[in-house]
Amino acid sequence: MMIMMRSAVTAAAALLLSLPVTAAHAAAPPAPPAAAVPQVLPIGVAVSALPIATEDRTGYQRSSFRHWNAGANPSDGCNTRAEVLIAEALEAPEVGPGCTLTGGVWWSYYDAREVTPAGALDIDHMVPLAEAWDSGASSWTAQRREAYANDLGQPSSLVAVTARSNRQKADQDPAEWLPPAADALCRYGAEWTATKLRWGLAVDELEQDRLLDIAASCGDTEVEFTPAP
After folding, report:
1. Which of 168, 172, 131, 170 is nearest to 149 (CA)?
2. How far apart are CA 177 and CA 65, in angstroms?
3. What's the distance, CA 223 to chain centroid?
4. Rounded distance, CA 36 to CA 14, Å?
5. Which residues contact 96 (CB under 8 A, 6 or more apart)?
6. 3-class DSSP assignment, residue 158
7. Burial 22-41 (b: 16+ CB within 10 A, else e)
8. pLDDT for 109-140, tens place per residue?
9. Given a cut of 50, is residue 143 above it in pLDDT?
10. Is 21 exposed, middle or buried (0-12, 13-18, 19+ CB in 10 A)?
11. What is the pTM of this model?
């Protein structure tokens, strides 16, 4: 009996050794994707890295970008808008049931204004949804457009500003609108460029020219971005 058991074990081992290497590897879990590496570029270099393309708004609908969703922590009751407000507050608001925000103070850098309460603020998409559509997002999946519209992975993508300045900006690019505050120009140019680089969006020629003009007067400014997953 012992000889028969040894023979069976030997036969099983020989069978395992004879299997193709790929079969053994097939059971191993896939390696996790490599994390995107944050990048820092001088503003002139960053602007020059943006691809140039003709914009096309055919088929655009704001509803193509679902927002605001449940945010980074779906269990806390705060949507993306509220999470941006909490993150950007100079003086933190009190967070009540249902993520009701009471009190708090914010700085709208577009027009250099201190703002309270939270209801007086809009959350601006640094690169407006219509502009993103024109620049490449029209070819994205609905899931990627939702990720863009609720992007909490890079602070410059969404910014709390006065409702008035956000509505003046509307869907215009830097060739058409810039923040009125004198000290806002370099930051705005850098954050616009960072958002387009993060999401692989293009610029048109007039937009690029204006960004290069900004870069020429903001030579010490750096553009920080992390490619979107």
Report:
1. 131
2. 22
3. 14
4. 44
5. 102
6. strand
7. eeeeeeeeeeeeeeeeeeeb
8. 999 999 999 999 999 999 999 999 999 999 99
9. yes
10. exposed
11. 0.85
